[in-house]
Write a structure and sequence with these properties.
single chain, 138 residues, alpha+beta, three-stranded antiparallel sheet, two-stranded antiparallel ribbon, 6 helices, 43% helix, elongated
Length: 138
């Protein structure tokens, strides 16, 4: 994260030196590992050139899981229809493949994007038509 903050400082300095305007956003995508659909993860694997056999194997490890909760001798079972198993290397890898398109596309259009686990930072820089009105007396 320290490298990301350093790069943010470098980008801010560049905006200042070139007399541009910047607009930034920090996104904390909560519960991404719990809410990502199996189909989305498998589509990302295919887009990134994974062999179909590997995609089928990963889908088989994800589908068919059952969550069981027990309280005071009463048990309840529920089939899980989305999410990655927690604590392994597969979940972060699948999330990175799902979100990878977000990072690749805009950078050519003057939008700087960084991600770390489930946090995403966007910074858009440029000369805006009404830039003078943005630098009023605040």
């Amino acid at each position: 994260m320290q490298t990301a903050l350093h790069q943010l400082g470098v980008q801010a300095e560049k905006v200042h030196d070139e007399q541009k305007t910047a607009l930034g956003a920090f996104l904390d995508t909560e519960r991404v590992f719990n809410n990502t659909c199996y189909e989305t993860m498998c589509d990302a694997l295919i887009r990134h050139g994974s062999d179909y056999t590997i995609v089928r194997w990963i889908r088989a490890t994800l589908e068919g899981r059952i969550a069981v909760a027990t309280l005071n001798g009463f048990s309840m079972s529920l089939a899980i229809s989305r999410s990655c198993p927690q604590g392994g290397v597969l979940s972060p890898l699948l999330w990175c493949l799902v979100v990878d398109d977000l990072f690749a596309t805009p950078s050519a259009n003057g939008i700087f994007i960084q991600g770390y686990t489930d946090d995403i930072r966007l910074l858009m820089m440029g000369k805006f038509p009404y830039q003078d009105s943005l630098s009023g007396p605040f």
